[in-house]
Amino acid sequence: MRRFSLLLIVPTLAILALSSASLIDGSGTLYHRDFLTSHLPLKAAHANLLTDGHLLPTIDPYRSGGQPLLGNPNALPLYPTNVFFFVASPLWAMNAHVWVHWLLAPFALFWLARAFGLSRPSAWAAGAIYATSGYFLSLFNLYNLIAAATWTPALVAACLEARRGRPGRWPAAGALWTLIVLGGDPLYAALAGLMALSVMLLPIPGPSTPWTRFVPRCAVAFGLGTAVTLPMIVEMLRILPASFRGHWRYSMEAALAQSWDPRTALEWLMPFFFGPLSYDFWGREFFGGNPPLLYALYPGTLALVLVIIAGRPRGRRMGQWAWGWIAVGGFLTLGIYNPAMWWLYRLPGASVLRYPIKAWLLVAVAASLLAGLGLERALREGRGPLLRRLLGIASLGYLGLWLLFLVLPAPFARLLQSMDPATLRGPFFAAERLRWLTLCFFILVTAAALWFACRWLKTKPGIAVALLVAAHVASQCFLLQPLYDSDDTAAYTREPALLAHIGEDQHGVHGAFQGMFGNLSGEHVMRFPDRRFFWLNRENFTSMGHFSGTLHRRRYDFNHSPEGLDTFVNISLTQSLAELDDAESLRVLAASGVDRLFMHRPLEGVPEDEATLLHTETGGAWDHSVYAVERPAPHFALAGRAIGTPHLNAALEIIVSDSFDARTTAVVRSIDLPQSINGESGRVEVVENRLERLVLDTESGDGGVLLTRRAWLPTYRATIDGEPVATAVVNIHKLGVVVPAGEHRVEIWIDRGPTRLAVTAALLSLFALAAWAFMEVRRDPVSTAGS
């Protein structure tokens, strides 16, 4: 075991740690796409709440007036790595979540390969191949997917060993299932559960647990594991009907976006074939017209060759199981290119599941397992010479491809340019040719090094496998470095100059978010020093984008999270703003209680008394301005005039009119307004203003509508003088209460009754899992230790 660790485990982990050194020491941060723009605001807000003593907050007060937090799986509200936020900055804690799982991923797949009977060297090679695959490294920008991808192989391994009667495996399976569910993506949890179920149903040779004991234990393990996650599940079910995803759902085209185009199989041979990971990426046509969700699926030369050696699934249950899941994964990931998927997505509820490419998890796990099987056959079944021949063929093939790129004969050039004739021409095509040439050269060097390492496969197999794994891991980390590229953390930790123009009790909006005040143009991007993505993040940070403001405890409206679990009315109104002119949009902001508007361009056609330019920051790729929104709806007010409307469009038409005054008038859903109100505004005194509770004293002569800047959620409850009343949706998406004339005490709070029950059940289930594991270990400590 010591020799195995020194030859295989230590070098692999050393290369991974060295590759993520800037993330570990905090000098760098991941920045691609969702990591900063989507996940950082969620986790920065959560970090603020945790450090303030709110251990289980149900709402995020920094997002759109208070949107769901505990019920939003994408926020990972209960995942164990949240403890990092107590001891470090949000940026370091987020990066730690990623690199910790990267270091754990080889062990998870190693366990699965060992459970299927592979030797330690072959099993570790499979784990290293999985952890350094283009698929896994593409998850570095998807904070809510990497945990489930890490633990899925371990869950399958625990279930397989539990099927064989290994002590302690059922509690372990329950705990791993908990981590996967808490990992942030329901679809990934479903895929992991299906893989685990399939391996438990797989006929296995040798002794196994009788079905009469197996089925109940399986049900208890997964039942307890699910029960631990109940606080998140219960809250999600409570807010789902009013959410965008639950109310509107996604169209067939949106649900099947990010399907795997078979033409992109070219990237199995060369990573980033369709363009670099920058604004020079030209291959959107091959990814449904969008940037790919998974930037690269390059498995590496060694992985491809070993899967070929694994061959047909003859004799070994593992091979049959793995090839079966590759077929299932391929079927699902084809998405829009698979006619059967159009029928499947018409089934009730299927449209809430987006992005078929996510099912590549099945392919990646199964193919990595097959790679381990291929190495096992090379070591045990005399296929070492075949491995060397295939690596030699790969070396010659890449040499020929390199020469072809070097010479670039006219027919080959025309073939390449035909993929995107408008872009692949002139200097850009020359730059792409040089990039392809460089990539091909390094893959050629890697294939040659792997071929050379095979010389000792028969005489010194331990050394040969160590060299193969080290060469593969190092080459993957080098070739796929753009997937985990980091930017200087200092660019996101200093205070932006515009921060001084918005207080912690004020609400802001970033005009470029979701194109509410127009999108950034190509002209803006052309002003960056180079074509790398992080320049846009830096500009957004300077201009007080919502992730920048949340880091500094500033509250934003219309900054919904991308998974669609924020309220339907909030997201719909955000989308509507993109269709309005500046003056109309500004009136919607005022009605929502927005104090500050951060802009990437000057406002157009806005009366001087509706917005005041406070400051313009120069020196970046473009000027960044902050405007004060005049006459916004106050934090709390008792509007004496209320207008009932039947739907969102009618309410919007009233609010955008120049005669609407958000300080004295409320637009209310007709079903929430029992009678018309047209009187003088009343008085409001704040008695208590906490995260999930409000106590307000009101006084009015004619009654009115209590306005707040908080977003309406279905979990809010209210009383007037102790008598229950319904909450009202006012000004399209805000929380209000219709109050009668006279003096009254209004109390509004989040109903945590179901949450408390869920937390109690979760704690009891967690205790039951721990007790079960303890009893299993005590029952057979020798077997457990030996495993």
Task: Outline the structure in words.
The chain is α+β, with helices and mostly antiparallel strands. It is built from 30 helices and 21 strands. The strands form six sheets. The chain has a five-stranded mixed β-sheet with strand order 6-5-7-9-8. Strand 8 and strand 9 form a beta hairpin. The longest helix is centred in the middle third of the chain and has 28 residues, at 426-453. The radius of gyration is 29 Å and the shape is globular.
Query: What kind of sheet is the major sheet?
Result: 5 strands, mixed
Rg, rounded, reads 29 Å
Shape: globular
Strand order of the largest sheet: 6-5-7-9-8
Per DSSP, the total helix count is 30
Stretches where pLDDT is under 50 for at least 5 consecutive residues are none
Structural class: alpha+beta
- Percent range for helical residues? 40-55%
The residue-averaged pLDDT reads: 92
Amount of beta strand: 5-15%
How far apart are the first and last residues' alpha carbons, in Å?
13 Å
Number of beta-strand segments? 21
